[in-house]
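Researcher: I'm preparing a figure for a lab meeting and need a structural model of a single chain. I don't have an experimental structure, so a prediction will have to do for now. The sequence is pasted below. Please return the structure as tokens so I can convert it later.
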Amino acid sequence: MKRTNVFLRFSVALLFCLSTFVTLSPASAAVPGNRCKDRCNDVYHQRMDECKNTRREKRRCEDRAKRERDDCKRRCR
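Model: Understood. Here is the structure written out token by token.
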């Protein structure tokens, strides 16, 4: 009874390790995405977080952040 329990645990652990290895294979890293647009989106989200602190100019700040992101994305093309 104990041997089957140990064997079952070992099998599950081995299966988990193999599935993790398959997930981290270089083929999944072959699709890097568009770094320029990713950087533009990161800057945009930082600016939007900064806009949360302003009360009066919140709408203008958000519009400015959107324009900057759009300009950044146009430069990426």
